[in-house]
Amino acid sequence: MASSDGECCRAHRLAWRLSRGEIPYGMQVLHKCDNGLCINPDHLFLGTQKDNVDDCIRKGRFRRGEDTGTAKLTPRDVMKIRELHGKQSGYSVGRAYGVDPQTIYNIWNRKKWKHLPEGEEARG
Asked: Interhelix angle for 75-83 vs 90-97, to 10°?
């Protein structure tokens, strides 16, 4: 959608600009109602990306791991990958699971799938 100055922007951002003024640099227009299509200015507020993520987590909408819908791995895969740390290369494990070696290193270094517990309790 185009704004009055010809610049392309999303409808809720345009609604904010028309009702409340310019959006400060680095700020996002967030939804109190959690409806991304909503343009009601009373449902909108300004916040940072961190505010947006915190709001998402607080409301139980934050998806991670296989809940994202795009994950190639399951929790069981991740536990098996963790067991291979130090036994195989990230490249060979990545090929075996169809993911980039960096994904394997991120799992091993607990940068990805860190919500899964370590050890026996995770194996279920």
From this structure: 150
Q: What tokens were used for 60?
A: 């139980």
Tell which residue, 75, 21, 77, 61, has the closest CA to residue 44: 21
Domain assignments of the chain as residue spans, ordered by start: 11-58, 65-122
Burial 67-80, CB ≥16 within 10 A → b, else e: eeeebebebebbbe
Average model confidence (pLDDT) for the chain? Answer: 82
Tens-digit pLDDT profile for residues 80-104: 999 999 999 999 999 999 989 999 9
Q: Does domain 65-122 have CATH number 1.10.405?
A: no
Name the token pair of 83: 């067991």
For the whole model, what pTM was predicted?
0.48
Alpha-carbon distance 124 to 122, whole Å? 6
